[in-house]
Prior knowledge:
This protein is α/β, with parallel strands linked by helices. The chain folds into two domains: about 10-250, Type I PLP-dependent aspartate aminotransferase-like (Major domain) (Aspartate Aminotransferase, domain 2, 3-Layer(aba) Sandwich), CATH 3.40.640.10; about 250-374, Aspartate Aminotransferase, domain 1 (Alpha-Beta Complex). It is built from 13 helices and 15 strands. The protein has helices at about 10-20, 30-40, 55-65, 80-90, 110-115, 135-145, 195-205, 240-250, 250-270, 300-310, 325-330, 340-345, 360-374; strands at about 45-50, 70-75, 95, 120-125, 145-150, 160, 165, 170-175, 190, 210, 225-230, 275, 285, 290-295, 350. Strand 6 and strand 7 (about 165) form a beta hairpin. About 50% of the residues are buried. Its cofactor is pyridoxal 5'-phosphate.
Amino acid sequence: MLPYGRQSIDSSDIEAVARALRSDWLTTGPEVTAFEADLAAWTGGTACVAVANGTAALHTAYAALGVGRGDQVVTSPITFVATASTAVALGATVVFADVDPATANLDPEAAASALTARTKVIAAVDYAGHPAEYDELTKIAEGAGLSLVADAAHSIGSRYRDRPVGSLADVTTFSFFPTKNLTTAEGGAVAVRDAGVLIAARRFRTHGLVRENDQLRARDEGGWYHEVQEFGLNYRLPDVLAALGRSQLRRLGAFKARRTHLAARYDELLADVAGLGLPVRRDRVDPMWHFYPVRVRDGRRREVYERLRAAGIGAQVNFIPAYWHPAFADLGYRRGMCPVAEAFYAEELSLPLYPDLADADQDRVVEALREILR
């Protein structure tokens, strides 16, 4: 089966992991600190906190911003459920706002209309690697005294108005799952602009531990002493995985170039296929395409999905509207809340896209899709 996404691992990655395994540190060591510094080179200098996975990054981001019981988080339904579920885990209520029909990113007007006196955070999602409308969302958030979170699980390496993802919101979260733009096997990170929120994120990642003597409530207990002043979790990223991430970051530019090449080939080869909508790219955006989302018209999405799969081509659907999941339905969320998002979901199909995808394999995808839709 030709997958819709997969990791790209070479000998340099294997050597980096082997060096970490031979070192004195398997976790909480120097590779993590170095990985965070390397990441900051891709976020315009915004400080980064490495964590165990992308879901942990979202949970850490919301916790560091003080999201809790009684608060509301406004976000997009076209996302993996973790964008919303981690806010619920902290006791917040999620309010889903509709999306831009062209990009499937959070619609700023819909987000503004969803705000209430209880709103604490607006969380945008960079769908498929295309950054959201951060200038508009920033104005809305600042005008209402809110924090803006960027769920950039798909978009490390992308740019918006020539500014890198990671520098566009108060807090940005990344995922380094194998299908993402780079991988640490499992892993994620939080990029934070505010110094106080950065401290809170680092503490939440490590059980909430406070070790700095000048910040302890009891300061005369001895050098071993530490305190948990607010509860956190063990969301640490091991050095072994951070070493893989550092190696991957050295090739992120090449990964982007290859993904851009493949997306452009899809644009050209599929431009004249009837019944197929191609992804939109705004002029102000330089995306690192995470996957290539097409829209299959005329109610044929399921047929195309099943026939591609039968042909050994791993097309995928990204994503089921988050509030359709039974966990949200059981909380009272109902279908029909975001009609633009639901219309997008009804047609969306992701075609294979990853750095090691050969042009010949891409041609196979195109030929199969043409045959089905002719």
